[in-house]
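Pasting as-is:
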Amino acid sequence: MRKGSKMPKFYLAIDIGASSGRHIVGYKDERGTLQTVETYRFPNGVKEVDGHLTWEVERLVKEVKSGIRETLKKYPKVESMSIDTWGVDYVLLEEDKEIMPVYAYRDSRTKAVIGEVHEKIPFEKLYAITGSQFQEFNTLYQLYDDLKRGRLERATDFLFIPEYLMYKLTGVKKHEYTNASTTGMLSAQTNDYSKEIISVLGLKESLFKPLEKPKTPVGSFTAEVQAEVGGNVPVVLCPTHDTASAVEGIPMEENAPYVSSGTWSLLGIKSAKAFTSERAMRANYSNEYGPNYIRFQKNIMGLWIIQCLAKQTGLGFEEMVNLAKSSEYTEIFNVNDERFLASPNMKKEIAEYFLESGKPVPQTDADVINSTYRSLAYSYKVAYEELEEITGEKYGKLYIVGGGAKNKYLNQLTEEYTAKKVVAFPIEATAIGNLLTQIGE
C-alpha cells in the first residue's frame, strides 16, 4: 500500500452451495475496484439419514465459525458480514431448539403430498397468486409434508439455511425477502406471504414472520460466538438466496438474459413486473425477487449431472471436457427430467433414457459427457426462446456467471445452440453480489 493511502475497509461474504462453502473477504482498492480474497473453504453435501437426504447443519455452523476465526486472524477488523446459500430449504425451530432432521431439497419426501396440495389449491391458482414455478421440492410442499408428519405442531419458527446460520451467530431471527420468494408462497401482488395459501393448507400463520430486505442489519455476534471466533463482526442481510446475490454481481452492460451456472443453472432476466400468464406457467418460469426487481427465470438442472459423472468416473473436470471434445456423439436428452434429480447411477440413468426413447445409446464415457454438455446447451436455447416469447422482447446476448462460466466448451456449445453472443464472467458472482450489497453498491 502506498505511503499516506487509507487502509481499505474489509467485508466478509460467506457463500455456501450444495457442494462447498467459501469465506471471501472483499475490499475496494485505490482505484475503487473490488478485490476479493478467499480465506476459508469447506466441503458440503447431503447425508442420508434413515432413508432421507438431509443437511448437516450442525457441521455447517462449525465450518462457518471456523472460517470466521481464520478470517479474523488475517483481517482483525471486518466492517460487516453476510451469508448466502441455496434457496427452498429451512430449519424448523421450537424456540431455540432445532427440530431435526433438516431435510434436503433432493429428498423425495414431498412426492406423496403434491397431489393433496393441488387438490386443496390447484397449481393453476398457485401460479396465478405467486408466479412460482413448479418444483417438487418447493418449500410449500416441504412445509405441508411437515404438517402431515406432525413436525409443525411444536414449531415456533422456520428459518432458511442462511438465516439460521446468522441466527446461530447473533441470536436474532430474520426472514429475508429474496429467499422467501423461493417458497412458492409469496403473492406477486403483495410481495408478502399469501394468507390464502397459508389458510387453505392449514399451515401455522405464526411461522410466517415479516420479511426484511437486503442491507437490513441483523445484529452482532453473541458473547459466546465472540469467544469462539476471536472477535466481533456486525451481521447484515445480503440477498441470501445465492442466485439473487449472483445476479447482483453480474457486471451487465445492459439488461439481457443471464445464466447463473452452478449445480443448478438459472436462466432469466431482471424485470420491473411479474409474469404470471398461462404461457409462463406452462414454460415453468418463476418470478423470484432481487433487492428491487423481479428475477423472471427458469431452473435448469445445470452442472449437477456433470458433478455426478465426475464422481462416478473419477475424472477431473478438465479431463471431462477433453473427452467430450473427442466424441462425435451428439444426441441430446432432457436434463430437466426428474429421473436425473437424485439418481445414484447417472451413467446408467442416461443410457436408460436413450434406450427408452429409441435413440442410439452412448457407448463411452466421452459420449455420455459430450451428450450432457450438449443437452445442457440445448436446454438454454429452449429456455431463451420461451423467455423471448413470454416477454415479447428480443435479446442478443447471454451473460453467464458461476462455475459454468469457466467451461469454454460449454460456452461455445451454448453460443452455437442459442445463436446468441455469450459473455462469460468466470468470477465469484455470488460472493461479489453479497459483498456489493454490504458495501452499499
